[in-house]
Amino acid sequence: MNTRKRWVALGVAATVACGATPLAYAQGGFTLEEVVVTARKRAESLQEVPIAITAIDEQTLQRAGVERPGDYIGLIPNVTIVDTANVGDTQVSIRGIVSTRDAESTFAYVVDGILSTNPNSFNEELFDVQQVEVLKGPQGALYGRNAVAGAILVTTKAPTNEFEGKVTAGAGNQDLRKVSGTISGPIIDDTLLGRLSFSTRQDDGSYSNTFSGRDGVVDFIEDDSFRARAIWDVSPDLTLDFRAGYSEVKAGAINFNAVFAIPQFEAVFGSPAFFADVNQMDANFVFNVPGENQQETRDFAIKLDWDLGFADLVASVAYNDLEEYLLSDGTSATFYGYELTPACQSDRATLNSFTRPDLFGEFFQPFGVLPPGAGNDFVGVYGPYTPTSCDGYQYQERNQEDVSFDARLVSNNDGPINWIAGVYFAEIEREVVIAYGADQGQGFLRQPYVDPTGPNPTDLLFWDEFDTSVQSVYGQLEFDLSETMEVALAVRYDHENRKVMNQVPNVSGSGLNINLPGKINPALENNPDGVPDRETSFSQWQPKLTWSWRPVDDVTVFASYGVGFRSGGFNSVGTDDLLSFWFNSGFGGPGEAVDADLKVRDEYNKEVSEAFELGFKTEWLDRRLRVNASLFRTDVEDNQFFEFFAGPFGLLRAVTTIEDIYIQGFEADFSFVATETLTVYGGLGLLDSQIEENRNRPASVGNDVPQAPDRTANLGAELVYPLASGIDLMARVDWQYTGEMWFHTLQGEQTPTIWNAFFGPGFNQDFSRASRDAYDTVNLRVGLEGESWTVTAWGRNLTDEKYLQEIIPAAEFGGTFNHPSALRTYGVDFSYRF
């Protein structure tokens, strides 16, 4: 408690950040420039809006080198990001509420005023962007379902009525090459304006494959993106805004290494590697099936803005189409499913612990692969993602097509009462595939099902199509109690109908996997005529009440109460049957000996949260110092949580719910114009969280909420110093800190694993060494800025800090799957404006 008080005191006194803020010159000196935001769907001053907001303008985005969302997330206290399995698979935690893999997001992502329902759109390249706003706390009343943690608003640069352009090129280590460009100007006089922009990037990544000896096959990325925007002033009162985009991404995927967490194995075999600290892991990528992720995204939107006199009518239609697949190595070699296949036997003749210690490490520390021969089958400890074909392969698809419509009336701000009234509709079609099969060394068909005669036969398949219909009405009323005090009431009603149709063919597996002798999906065992469709609905009122007061011109005090809602949904059909057979008693399988008592179902409940906040926004020293801070608490019912399961069957991803959690905390940020050329800025976030009820993992009650680090902080400085007429020296340094983070609800409490089915009781997992250690990074940028050009030398993670990006615990497997973060990168960028 004393430590926490000291941190709070530090936050209030020093309030270490949200990026440097541009300077504006005032009488007798210089000040912080006013920042305009659109958080309440109208233009307002950042310091007057009663919401905790971080706004990052175009100049700061450029000087900080922001190119992807992870670059600006680190500048915001109490906001973190995990970016691992594939390019679009980001998990953002805002005040400890994390977007759950395979479920709906926890924040609204809005581009140019239009809500995006594409799950991968958030993690696209950021180029030609005017401003980014990060809103904290529930924003569902105005921004819709799933905005339980907040909203992220991106404003791209609008077309101009004069011809202009920009080209940027850069290069760096890891064979980084990138080019982006923009052309903007009038198409028809000043009535129709257009803008075209593109970005292309190639990066080999930080890691190489030990087995193949190749770079550029692990965490590489190739991204080509194109965007177009046109604004048509149909009349003085009516404007149409058209936006279209296309992107194609090729990248690495599933770049995890495994670490055991079973104390009994350490005791029996005498090897500390069976109960290791995840932070001491040396990443070694040895897969023989290089992970690949390919995405193709198309989007189109039209927004209408019509001044009706008494109000503005703002309406939009948006269309998104995403096609994505992942292919990578499998996980189950140690369970010997493909042990007797010719491919596995052949691989073991040349790829074993005696001939290739560079691939497997010291013998049985913890992995050990024996050559084929009498007595050597079903003996080794192989691990996942091996250089042999013994682990099979996995194939996944995430495809989505959606159409949405939003229309609202916004009052004209002329009186003491302002209001918004709107409706929203969306139709979403999503296809999810998780397939597991045999690697016979004959290549791969990239499709959900491969029959037994194919090169890579499928043995386990989850394949579902989801149809979702959303209907919403919303509104907000803001009224002045006095000249200095305002109350706002917003409310939204969401109704969502969800339907799932199983696409798995009613067939058996290939028979190559001795652990999967039956139907290709376990749900077919109880549904011999095929798995029936499922359908359900979720609905919720989301009110938000806000009070704000400006006792003096440079101070705003505010308080709010809000309800957030995240729709429930379906896991892949067969999830319950598969996990019950392998891990639960009463189902006639190995689970009789494991008895994990899992309560993971084929569907999961909606998530509802209540949030309270008290904050202030202030400016001091003639607007040279800006200090904003907030206290908050969020209580969540049925918090959706991602669980990963690995075992003899291969792997499975599922969403569960934690019945009750709370998260409370403090955050503050400041910007200070120290001199005419130097700005200092920083931020501090503190979180206190607890699991209060968790029926699926009752031993976890009292633990921290996953992905809610107790401390985050950042501190930086930006210097812009005139060297000659029209030429400035720019230098910027950013330090970012993230505290210890847990990734699972179990944090040291022992629970049974599948190994109890093979070796008897006592082989339980213990995740006490599976939290990610605190870490900090330093970024530096130094450059020259001319009137029409900029050249910048930059470095990220200059201290070459080695830390984990993500830890995925698999409790019933008895270990974790760990993804290292990028190492030090550096390079040079050049841009020219015309």
- Note the gap between the termini: 57 Å
Low-confidence stretches: 1-22
Structural class: mainly beta
Strand content: over 45%
* Rg calculated over all Cα atoms: 27 Å
Envelope shape: globular
Sheet of most strands: 22 strands, antiparallel, barrel
Please name the fourth-level CATH homologous superfamily. TonB-dependent receptor, beta-barrel domain
The number of distinct helices, counting runs of at least 4 residues, comes to 11
Q: Please, what is the average pLDDT?
A: 93
Structure description:
The protein starts with a helix and ends with a strand. It has a 22-stranded antiparallel beta barrel. A hairpin with a 4-residue loop joins strand 33 and strand 34 (678-693). The chain has one domain (2-833): Beta Barrel (Maltoporin, Chain A), CATH 2.40.170. By secondary structure, the chain is mainly beta. The chain is 8% helix and 50% strand. The chain has eleven helices and 43 strands.
Task: Write out key terms for the chains shown.
single chain; 834 residues; mainly beta; Maltoporin, Chain A; 22-stranded antiparallel β-barrel; five-stranded mixed β-sheet; 11 helices; 43 strands; 50% strand; disordered N terminus
Secondary structure layout:
Blueprint: H1 2-13, E1 23-26, E2 29-32, E3 36-37, E4 44-45, E5 53-57, H2 58-63, H3 69-73, E6 79-83, E7 90-94, E8 97-98, E9 107-111, E10 114-115, E11 129-136, H4 140-143, E12 150-156, E13 164-172, E14 176-188, E15 192-203, E16 208-209, E17 214-215, E18 221-235, E19 238-251, E20 257-260, H5 263-269, E21 292-307, E22 311-329, H6 342-350, H7 357-360, E23 393-411, E24 417-437, E25 458-480, E26 485-502, H8 523-526, E27 534-552, E28 555-566, E29 569-570, H9 575-583, H10 591-594, E30 603-604, E31 607-620, E32 625-647, E33 650-673, E34 678-693, E35 711-724, E36 727-738, E37 751-752, H11 756-759, E38 764-765, E39 775-785, E40 789-796, E41 804-810, E42 815-820, E43 825-833
